[in-house]
Amino acid sequence: MAVMNYSVPRTIVYGEKALDKLGELEGKKAMLVTGGSSMKRFGFLDQAKNILEKAGMKTAVIDGVEPNPSVKTVKEGAEAMIAFQPDWIVAIGGGSALDAAKVMWCFYEHPELTFEDIVTPLTMPKLRTKAHFAAIPSTSGTASEITAFSVITDTDNHIKYPLVSPEMVPDIAILDPALPAKMPAHITANTGMDVMAHATEALVSTASTSFTDPYALEAITLVAEWLPKAYKNGNDMEARYHMHNASTLAGMAFTNASLGLVHSLAHKIGGEFGVTHGLANAILMPWIIEFNKKSTDKYALAEKALKVDNLENEIRRLNRVLDIPASFASCNEVDFNEEKFKAVLDRMSENAYNDPCTLTNPGAPSIADIKAIYQAAYYGEWKKA
């Protein structure tokens, strides 16, 4: 039996008014990293700044991180950090802001590196020589606040790269359910199904262990019960609390067990078409569960926990409740032009096959298998060979 590691943030603070924990950080300067306008609009960015400044820290802000953070964005952010010299990096917002901040942190501490230097898993050098990292998620989905992962997009080549290093696990995760309570219903749905994808993939991963399975199963049961309630009523704080915790629990599982084909395929179709990551996961998940059942019986644990006979059909039912389309062809979030889909299918399939997440998927899926899954998820049915 190989020696393995289990890594999570040293401190996880969760529950009502958890944001106040920022006031206990010790340092001189804090750089806040956020995305679009929601954290400003709802006052959370100012609230975080005020708490830090009352604790004696100077603050500066990097904002405008795009939904699919690019190499250019993280390099520019690192330059701003080099100029400001923070000893705390505080990422507040959705998974994109948290992911971008992690890689900005890397280039802040190691400005000599190129993006290519850290693309290969586990090649990131030691961090925390200049700053520590606090993560405050505003969505219950990516679990970036807990993980060793970051997803960055090469916009020139239309490829999303999942970066992996235990160095990127934040020092503190702050889970305040007041932040995700501001998410619109469709974002609640998409990010919530991202949690379900994290948990189900961690459960069946070839790297799963008795340390990761309980967190994955608890997250699966929490999502099944509370996501429809959070979707129906965004102000249901009990539902928000449980979904925010479910996101982190799933993160504790997958950051240590890794993921599988759902994420491999979602990364690449997201890079080609710009579809939201959680939405892509939700559409792909039933088809990949169905495919993976040929190679693992561990989905039965989730079916037992949920008291259902068929997990892929339960995911399809959840998608319907959440108004998530059953196929990419019926998805109108972006233009899923069939001609373009056919044109990029071979390239997407090969890129997904080479995605690091494929390594821990059950069985040994081939490029042809991946192509067949993409076609099933696009058309809503398995295509005959």
Automatic annotation (TrEMBL):
<dbReference type="GO" id="GO:0004022">
    <property type="term" value="F:alcohol dehydrogenase (NAD+) activity"/>
</dbReference>
<keyword id="KW-0560">Oxidoreductase</keyword>
<dbReference type="InterPro" id="IPR056798">
    <property type="entry name" value="ADH_Fe_C"/>
</dbReference>
<dbReference type="Pfam" id="PF00465">
    <property type="entry name" value="Fe-ADH"/>
</dbReference>
<dbReference type="InterPro" id="IPR001670">
    <property type="entry name" value="ADH_Fe/GldA"/>
</dbReference>
<comment type="similarity">
    <text>Belongs to the iron-containing alcohol dehydrogenase family.</text>
</comment>
<dbReference type="InterPro" id="IPR039697">
    <property type="entry name" value="Alcohol_dehydrogenase_Fe"/>
</dbReference>
<dbReference type="InterPro" id="IPR034802">
    <property type="entry name" value="NADPH_BDH"/>
</dbReference>
<feature type="domain" description="Alcohol dehydrogenase iron-type/glycerol dehydrogenase GldA">
    <location>
        <begin position="9"/>
        <end position="177"/>
    </location>
</feature>
<dbReference type="Pfam" id="PF25137">
    <property type="entry name" value="ADH_Fe_C"/>
</dbReference>
<protein>
    <submittedName>
        <fullName>Iron-containing alcohol dehydrogenase</fullName>
    </submittedName>
</protein>
<dbReference type="InterPro" id="IPR018211">
    <property type="entry name" value="ADH_Fe_CS"/>
</dbReference>
<feature type="domain" description="Fe-containing alcohol dehydrogenase-like C-terminal">
    <location>
        <begin position="188"/>
        <end position="378"/>
    </location>
</feature>
<dbReference type="GO" id="GO:0046872">
    <property type="term" value="F:metal ion binding"/>
</dbReference>
